[in-house]
Structures are given as C-alpha cells and as structure tokens.
Design brief:
Length: 206
C-alpha cells in the first residue's frame, strides 16, 4: 500500500452488544482503546463484516477481533494471519454473521482492497441469547486477546489493559495457525496485571 495511509494501524472489534458473547470483539476494542500505542486507532464495528472493506482502505495493518461459533470449547481463542492465504472454509463456519469475516477478507482480496497485513482473532462463544452478558470463559478470553494484541501491536503500550479482575477459572485455550491446518493448542501467557485507575468503559450494538 502506498499513499497517505501507509503506516496506519487499525484494531477493529466486531460484534453485537445485545447478544451475549457476540459482544466479545467489542469488549476487546473497549479494553484496548486507552492502552494502544500512539498511531494505532481502535474502532468498534456493529454492522455486518462486509462493510469493513470501507473502513480499512487507508490502513497498512488491520487486527480484527470477533466472536465465533464453531462448537468448540467456549473461551477458546483462534488467531489467524490472513495476509497471504485465505482463511478457508473452517473459519467461515466460525463466524456469527450471515456474510462473515472470512468472506469479507476474501472479497477484499479479490477487489485488491486488502490491507498489507491482516490478522484475525476469534473468541469461541458460549451463548448468543438476546440481552445476555458475556459468559465467564469469554470474559477471560477477552482479557487474553487484549493482552496478546497489545503485545503484537507496533510501538510501546501507553498503559496496562484496564478492567475489573475476572473470576477465577481455567486458562484460556489458544489455537494458532491457519484454519485448515491449525497448529497445536498452546496455553497463553498470563495477562498483565491491571494497573490502578478507573475501570474500562462497559462492554459494537447492531
């Protein structure tokens, strides 16, 4: 990518704040907003993923966070680098949208409107019931994804990711690699401790 947008980095949380664990991507965006390095923009996206194509045309790197529903263990974190290869059919089935993130990425690739780098984080949801809040395993996964994204973004963080401590529970399971040939599950590193200060804003509504 060339032009004035070169070097722009976006973190986009996708979801519906009124459908339980579908709000996971929004929760990640809200936790990161005050902590990302300078030059990184955090957006919340409550619409269908296909409209993301109009949100990232000037971006050099894009990181997406979204809830998925694949029948896996709730709270499992999936990370895929879609820069050079399609996400594939397995990830397409993980989305919670009619036209999912995988479809959007491949449409943007076909239209030559894909950022130079695009990384997708998915959080396996447990419940997508209207009016429900995030389930405990998804709350823990939100913390894990927030910490991993903060470590992956270019530049030093401005502060530790904020938020109230989550209830005790098992470590979040993470699956790395492409969806059609996932790497071995690896336990995530501990999330950084919360720093003193006000809690992050509460948990995108379509």
């Amino acid at each position: 990518m060339t032009g004035p947008g070169r070097g722009r980095v976006l973190v986009i949380g996708i979801g519906n704040g009124w459908r339980g664990d579908d709000a996971a991507g929004l929760a990640v965006a809200r936790r990161l907003r005050a902590a990302v390095p300078p030059g990184v923009e955090v957006l919340e996206h409550a619409g269908e993923p296909v409209s993301l194509i109009d949100a990232w045309p000037a971006a050099d790197a894009v990181y997406l966070a979204d809830a998925v529903s694949s029948g896996g263990e709730p709270g499992t974190v999936y990370r895929f680098d879609a820069t050079g290869q399609p996400l594939g059919a397995r990830f397409a089935r993980r989305g919670t949208h009619a036209f999912g993130v995988a479809d959007t990425v491949e449409l943007a690739r076909a239209l030559r409107r894909l950022p130079r780098r695009i990384v997708v984080y998915g959080i396996e949801g447990a419940s997508f019931a209207a009016g429900a809040s995030l389930s405990p395993p998804v709350r823990r996964a939100v913390r894990t994804v927030s910490a991993r994204l903060l470590a992956e973004l270019p530049g030093p963080a401005t502060r530790t990711v904020l938020g109230p401590p989550d209830s005790p529970g098992p470590a979040t399971r993470t699956v790395l690699g492409l969806p059609d040939s996932p790497g071995p599950a690896t336990p995530p590193p501990p999330c950084p401790p919360d720093s003193p200060g006000p809690a992050a804003p509460p948990s995108l509504a379509r």
